[in-house]
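pinning this so it doesn't scroll away 📌
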Amino acid sequence: MTKRYVRVKTNSESVYYGLLQPNRGVAVLDAPPWLNGQVTDLELEADTYQLLAPCVPSKIVAVGKNYVKHAAEMGTEAPKEPLLFLKPNTAIIPDGAGIRYPQISKRVDYEGELAIVIGERCYQQNLEQASKAIWGYTIANDVTARDLQKKDGQWTRAKGFDTFCPLGPWIIRELATEATLETFLNSEAKPRQSAIVTEMKFSPEFLVSYISGIMTLMPGDVILTGTPQGIGAMQKGDRVTVEIEGIGSLSNYVEIT
């Protein structure tokens, strides 16, 4: 069974990193796993904790238009170099939490994405070094206030609201080359988004190398690798679920305010 690394909060408010067990118990680690955390004697039973986002990054570096067909649906060509932007870590929420719909926006979109978790401090790394710096993978939803993105001409406000980065539910170490990413809305059987992760223009190791040439990436940092075609609006009360083969599913609802 693939190891699933989690971050949890107990009923007594203690926060731990751990390994999810087949019985949904959690074997507690003594440190974040990318900092060589080791299994302790403490194991949490399934009903004694809640899942948190699986890491607390110092920054979230996101990549725009990294799938050619998505760039086309946005009315542009795919960029010749990675198009980068930052999301604040205050945007992160875990699996199952609510996405808040800003009152100043009239359109809020889902964007299902593969997320990379960095395992070591890295700066100006080549492709081989960058590949080794990738500690694992999880799922993200790069929630976007689309009307504000178009209005502002840049993306910080549109993508930076609190709750605009669902992340999780856990991290795995390796991902199959042909893993499929799909995004579902409510109970629809047909996905709104569906792509193989290798369809992205710039690979995970290239992104890490490229970004590390600009800024230092720290252990636990997150890179969002871009979304495939099929983005669309969410309404209050909707539930959006992003599934990546080999990882699992990340499901969040849009809060009714």
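📌 and the second one:
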Amino acid sequence: MRAIIQETIESYGSGLAITAISIEDAAPPREVADAFEEVQRAEQDEDRFVEESNQYSNQQLGQARGEAAAIREEAAAYKNRVVQEADGEAQRFISVYDEYAKAPDVTRRRLFLETMENVLKSSNKVIVEQGNGQGVIPYLPLPELRAAQPAGQGGNN
């Protein structure tokens, strides 16, 4: 402001030099006071909205970083569990192989019986009697029937 006033005075050739400017009371005219106050309120609202948006942004960013960290931890735990299971299976296979190398016939028979046990465990069973028997005899799974019996209904043992 001082430079503008100095240029104007020099253009008049007055020989004056402006050394300081002091504005003591700057109030807008009454005709524009309401508009001026509205502008001030709008600027304050803008600052407040910017601050609120920054807070919201920081909150969302923090939440997203927390979720990302949780996902990374979960993935690391899953990886660790899968690796441990694979190591366990490999060790189990090695131990079975070692036993097979010692006694192949016994180990082969044991593996066959374990596999058949797992396969037949959940299937319906029928016993076929050879020779002079009745032929087909249905298998009655007593332990399974006893476990399925509702509580409070005591049967004869």
